[in-house]
């Protein structure tokens, strides 16, 4: 009898294991799980002091809590340095976040001089070079003083070996040029400065987002003079090959795709967003349509075809909805019903932009801020399903519409740069478009003397 019971138990365990691994087939991908080797190189010189060093440790622990630590996910190593570097935590020695955090908390402050160059070299030789994983490699240098040894060449060599370097400077003794020479370019992304150690908690979120962008959004989209991290969804879905017909957008150089109901713009999410999406991003699309029904301009479906993320155009109500995941019950749907949303339905070209952050989502139409709505905390997306564009909601049928652009930018700052320069119809009589450093401006040209009229900014145009 006891034997039979054991047999049943074994069977039950086997069944359960199968059930669990089937669930595992639908893994959620996000920054928590994106694989990367991450090394913190911490200044432990005299100028820091034991109290501030405790703050640094607490900051390190708080950043680490955002990641799932493990051989398949992120691995974190720590080097502390003063005159010489000390290997506090090697890469890949921890299988869980809790153990790693315990070890971080027990790091002892060194005291001494500031030999940053030596520490970067050490991190390369003893941590990165020993990791057998081929993936994103990131080093974060946190210092409060000028290095007392050669650092520029060492950093350049590390970057050449595909290590992305972030530099964080604390306090007034910092030399800005040195931080810039250590870190990757552009400095606006890879160099941070805070006035004192108390203030480093303020850059925790931005560092978390930047670290995530490195592992989740490795592709770069050329935008004006810079390369932006993100996803060109039209490229990801092979639209160029699948949609034959192009339309020239009048008065611009831009071409758009004429999507008909015969094409299927779908792709495995795993191929488009292999590591999911970062916590904050900007969705941008330029399109025109005539359909009066409800359709998803963009959607990411789970394996059982439920939308996890969607930008939905509600033709009946003339509103726009944004669907995303939710920690509370799986999904949340945010509907924008402001009167200005109706302009989307005038059959002309429009730009839709959604700034998505951890706490809110803001809708912009043709560069005009429409509405901001709060978001509940989100979950990672399942990557085993499909990513699609231009589908009727709840159906597989493709919508007939024209699309020029559909992108996700991982840096939320891109929201301030992405503009409507390429939208036709805005450079008609007297109006001209100016590509300025911060974006696209529309000014009214005074034909009598060729100067711009003051205050003739976009506001008055649409
Ligand atoms: C880390 O998080 C804890 C708990 O939220 C907070 O009390 C502490 O101030 C944080 N430390 C830093 C340096 O941000
Ligand atoms: C989740 O909760 C929201 C309200 O907070 C509700 O509108 C929505 O229908 C719920 N979704 C599911 C799948 O239960
Ligand atoms: C051009 O003409 C406008 C009025 O049409 C005037 O306000 C402006 O000062 C003139 N600019 C120059 C450079 O003369």
Automatic annotation (TrEMBL):
InterPro entries: ConA-like_dom_sf, ECM_Assembly_Org, TSPN-like_N, VWF_A, vWFA_dom_sf. It is found in: Cytoplasm; Secreted, Extracellular space, Extracellular matrix. SUPFAM superfamilies: Concanavalin A-like lectins/glucanases (SSF49899), vWA-like (SSF53300). One of its GO terms (cellular component) is collagen trimer. Residues 37-211 form the VWFA domain. Residues 1-22 form the signal peptide. Belongs to the fibril-associated collagens with interrupted helices (FACIT) family. PANTHER family: COLLAGEN ALPHA (PTHR24020), COLLAGEN ALPHA-1(XXI) CHAIN (PTHR24020:SF90). This is Collagen alpha-1(XXI) chain. It comes from Gallus gallus (Chicken).
């Amino acid at each position: 009898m006891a034997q039979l019971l054991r047999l049943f138990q074994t069977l039950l365990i086997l069944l359960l294991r199968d059930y669990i691994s089937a669930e595992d087939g639908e893994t959620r991908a996000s920054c928590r799980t994106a694989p990367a080797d991450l090394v913190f190189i911490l200044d432990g010189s005299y100028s820091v002091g034991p109290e501030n060093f405790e703050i640094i440790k607490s900051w390190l622990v708080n950043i680490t809590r955002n990641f799932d630590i493990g051989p398949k996910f992120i691995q974190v190593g720590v080097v502390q340095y003063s005159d010489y570097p000390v290997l506090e935590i090697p890469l890949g020695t921890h299988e869980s976040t809790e153990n790693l955090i315990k070890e971080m908390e027990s790091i002892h402050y060194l005291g001494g001089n500031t030999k940053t160059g030596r520490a970067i070299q050490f991190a390369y030789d003893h941590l990165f070079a020993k990791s057998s994983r081929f993936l994103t490699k990131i080093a974060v240098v946190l210092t409060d003083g000028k290095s007392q040894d050669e650092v520029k060449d060492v950093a350049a060599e590390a970057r050449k070996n595909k290590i992305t370097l972030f530099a964080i400077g604390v306090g007034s003794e910092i030399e800005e040029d040195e931080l810039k020479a250590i870190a990757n370019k552009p400095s606006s992304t890879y160099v941070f400065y805070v006035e004192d150690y108390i203030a480093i908690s303020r850059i925790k979120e931005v560092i978390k987002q930047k670290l995530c962008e490195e592992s989740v959004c490795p592709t770069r989209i050329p935008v004006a003079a810079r390369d932006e991290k993100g996803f060109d969804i039209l490229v990801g879905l092979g639209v160029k090959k699948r949609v034959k017909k192009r339309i020239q957008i009048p008065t611009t150089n831009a071409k758009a795709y004429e999507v008909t109901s015969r094409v299927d713009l779908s792709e495995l999410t795993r191929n488009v967003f292999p590591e999911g999406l970062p916590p904050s991003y900007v969705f941008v699309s330029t399109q025109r349509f005539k359909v009066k029904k409800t359709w998803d301009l963009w959607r990411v479906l789970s394996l059982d075809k439920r939308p996890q993320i969607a930008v939905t155009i509600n033709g009946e109500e003339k509103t726009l909805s944004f669907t995303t995941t939710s920690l509370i019950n799986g999904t949340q749907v945010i509907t924008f019903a402001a009167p200005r949303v109706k302009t989307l339905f005038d059959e002309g070209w429009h730009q839709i932009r959604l700034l998505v952050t951890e706490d809110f989502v803001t809708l912009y139409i043709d560069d005009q801020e429409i509405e901001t709505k709060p978001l509940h905390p989100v979950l990672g997306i399942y990557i085993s399903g499909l990513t699609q564009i231009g589908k009727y909601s709840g159906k597989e049928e493709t919508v007939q519409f024209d699309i020029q652009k559909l992108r996700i930018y991982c840096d939320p700052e891109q929201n301030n740069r992405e503009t409507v320069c390429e939208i036709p119809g805005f450079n008609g009589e007297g109006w001209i478009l100016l590509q300025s450093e911060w974006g696209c401006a529309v000014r009214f040209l005074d034909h009598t003397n060729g100067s711009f009229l003051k205050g003739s900014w976009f506001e008055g145009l649409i």
